[in-house]
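Predict structure. Chain length: 383.
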Amino acid sequence: MKRMKRSTLVIVLGVLVLLAAAAAFVFSRGKPEDAAKPKDAAAAPTKPALTVSVARPEASELTITLAANGNVAAWQEASIGSESNGLRLAEVRVNVGDVVKKGQVLATFSTETVQADVAQARASLAEARATAADAAGNAARARTLQATGALSQQQINQYQTTEQTAKARVEAAEAVLAAQQVRGRNTQVLAPDDGVISSRTATVGSVLSAGTELFRLIRQGRLEWRAEVTSAELGRVAVGTPAIVVSASGAQVSGTVRSIAPTVDPQTRAALVYVDIPNVTANTGIKAGMFARGDFQLGRSSALTVPQASIVPRDGFNHLLLLQPDNRVAQQKVETGRRVGDRVEITTRLPEDARVVVQGAGFLNDGDLVRVVDAAPTKEQRP
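Prediction complete.
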């Protein structure tokens, strides 16, 4: 019995020894996939991180601009009011936004009262003329009798004084008639200049006093952009400088500097530059009272530009990825300037033979290996 137990134990130990030897052999050879790898891992070729397109920086002529903000206002506004007193407004012929010509009738007042006053003034003038004629005849007869002594000198002087008084009354009656005729002409409210009606307070049927405003007129339909320019930049702007004004809605209009304010605001240290915006009816996107931004066109200068897609913003700075001779990229921090279309000015100096990554630049890091393909032709390059 003891021999059986001992032999069984020997068999078990033998089996364990064989299993341990097999396991050691397997682990000594390693995994199959490890065996398939090349012994020198460094000798294996590195795959490109991305397929990209590159472009060379281009020299371009860009406009030098000066940005500013300001309000749009009427060049000049005319206040059109009533010159007659106590007349009823009978008709209003224009409304806000209407384009009017100089001398055009804008509104009319009732003429019945004025016509009655004119008729009364004419009657008074006729009476004064008749009285003056009678006084002149008496004075003439008195002068003929002066030599005969039939009349005293005092009586003769009285006739002459009566004649002069009658003449003065005729002149006064003529002045009253002229005033009433002017009042009659004032029953028509006329436009003082060409322009656009900007406001209307006239109401048919109202009885107005002299001086009451009825309309406001933007003279000659001209607006102006009152741009605020700092004192440090004011010397760069001159009369006649062209400007592009952009409203809050995005509408653009061209203008020209008409004048520059002679003083600078002591609080803001900025001066007003007045830019003419002609033809308000055509520039429907620009209205008086709007806030607008704009750029003064100061000239042109050469600049080095790259496609906007090649600019990579990282860590608060702009970068370009430059292609190296070994097809790896090197990241370079750059300063940008003006933008025109899809081109951006680079003010940082670049190598003369620099090639910048355009397509795929945002997915690369410094030192990445890339595969370069030709960029797609632009619209100008396509046949």
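Summary: Confidence is low (pLDDT under 50) at residues 30-44, 376-383.
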